[in-house]
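ok trying this again, last paste got cut off
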Amino acid sequence: MAREIRIEISDEAYEQPQRAAAEKHVAAEAYAGQVLDADLTRFRFVEGARSFIGQHAEGFAELFGGRAGRADAA
């Protein structure tokens, strides 16, 4: 289900995504949605990696050596 978020930004801040959107031949609003979605996808990936490290670091350290608990590596 698509949802809508309305934000206000300055004219100066709007110009850059507007130019990038024009280069990709999409509306500025669609481009902003794509950028936000990509950023959130990256955020979810990093959080998942941190969770995985937190859950499995000790087991990996036992099997392969090294230090456990380095969740900041992600």
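PB: full thing came through this time. The chain has two helices and no strands.
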